[in-house]
């Protein structure tokens, strides 16, 4: 790891935290998950992957996989969390974790369908369905 | 020490973004029909409400209206089809870029001469 990485990690962490919070609406859990996914990728791929955009995808993929496991373990506890706003709580009840992930990657990070497929390991048709299905739901949602 | 993490505001943020993108998509796809008066009552109402609520839609609408006005002034017959109008606007853009790069000082005069001759040839 060279000198430019700490700054790059800091910038990546900001957006990654938002992504993870979207999947697990708990501040402490999200912070821990950011640290875990970045550490895991750097340990597993040290020296083998040098392209930053590739590393970024691997970090998001790892974060999603870890978040999915933890969300199931924490199921029921998260929705009572007071840290999240009411309108967003309704989304958690109506949108499964895969749909929230696809929605975030599409709308906030502007990832391509191929990139979203890689991060979520979902087939193309499911990614496309989730992108448009989620948009429809958001448009119809009352504020 | 200040945290580098900011708690995101997802609820309203996502809804607002989705609605604005939908409005832009609707305006982009229907602006030609709106200008031609070919939208039905409900579509027109929807279009007007988007223009009222989203400045980005107004900008998009005005850009298209200016382009349409320009084409209508250049072609008095006004029976230009949508496909023709799109092809012409693309050609105009190409021409403009070409002239701007090649003739830095007098590109505007030459550009309009070229455009006029292009439209004259199309009308024949």
> How many helices of chain A does DSSP assign?
7
Tell me the total number of β-strands of chain A.
Answer: 0
Number of helices of chain B: 5
Query: Low-confidence parts of chain A, pLDDT < 50 over ≥5 residues?
Result: none
Strand content of chain A: under 5%
| CATH fold-level topology of chain A | Butyryl-CoA Dehydrogenase, subunit A, domain 3
How many discrete domains of chain B? Answer: 2
Query: Roughly how much helix do the residues of chain A carry, as a percent range?
Result: over 70%
Structure characterization notes:
The complex is a heterodimer of chains A (143) and B (124). Chain A is mostly helical and 143 residues long. Helices cover 73% and strands 0% of the residues of chain A. Chain A has a single domain (5-140), classed as Butyryl-CoA Dehydrogenase, subunit A, domain 3 (Up-down Bundle), CATH 1.20.140. The model of chain A has no long low-confidence stretch (mean pLDDT 83). Chain A contains seven helices and no strands. Chain A is globular. The longest helix of chain A is centred in the middle third of the chain and has 22 residues, at 52-73. Chain B has two domains: 11-74, no CATH class; 79-124. Chain B has five helices and no strands. The model of chain B has no long low-confidence stretch (mean pLDDT 75). Chains A and B meet through helix 1, helix 2, helix 4 and helix 7 of A and helix 1 of B.
Map the helices and strands:
The complex is a heterodimer of chains A (143) and B (124).
Chain A: H1 5-23, H2 27-44, H3 52-73, H4 86-94, H5 97-107, H6 113-120, H7 124-140
Chain B: H1 10-36, H2 41-53, H3 55-74, H4 82-102, H5 107-123
Helix pairs in contact in B: 1-2, 1-3, 2-3, 4-5
């Amino acid at each position: 790891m060279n000198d430019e990485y700490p700054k790059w990690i800091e910038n990546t962490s900001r957006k990654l935290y938002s992504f993870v919070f979207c999947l697990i609406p708990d501040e402490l859990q999200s912070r821990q998950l950011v640290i875990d996914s970045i550490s895991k990728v750097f340990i597993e791929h040290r020296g083998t992957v040098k392209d930053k955009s590739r590393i970024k995808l691997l970090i998001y993929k790892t974060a999603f996989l870890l978040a999915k496991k933890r969300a199931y373990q924490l199921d029921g506890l998260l929705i009572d969390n007071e840290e999240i706003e009411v309108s967003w709580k309704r989304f958690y009840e109506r949108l499964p974790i895969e749909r929230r992930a696809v929605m975030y990657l599409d709308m906030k990070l502007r990832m391509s369908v191929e990139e979203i497929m890689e991060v979520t390991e979902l087939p193309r048709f499911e990614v496309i369905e989730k992108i448009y299905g989620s948009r429809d739901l958001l448009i119809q949602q009352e504020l | 020490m200040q945290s580098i993490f900011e708690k995101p505001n997802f609820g309203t943020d996502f809804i607002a973004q989705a609605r604005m993108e939908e409005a832009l998509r609707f305006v982009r796809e229907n602006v030609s029909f709106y200008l031609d008066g070919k939208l039905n009552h409900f579509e027109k109402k929807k279009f007007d409400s988007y223009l009222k609520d989203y400045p980005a839609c107004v900008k998009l609408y005005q850009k298209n209206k200016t382009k349409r006005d320009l084409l209508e002034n250049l072609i008095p017959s006004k029976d230009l089809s949508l496909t023709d109008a799109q092809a012409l606007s693309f050609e105009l853009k190409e021409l403009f870029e070409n002239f701007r790069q090649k003739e830095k000082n007098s590109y505007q005069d030459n550009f309009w001469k070229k455009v006029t001759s292009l439209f004259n040839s199309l009308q024949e």
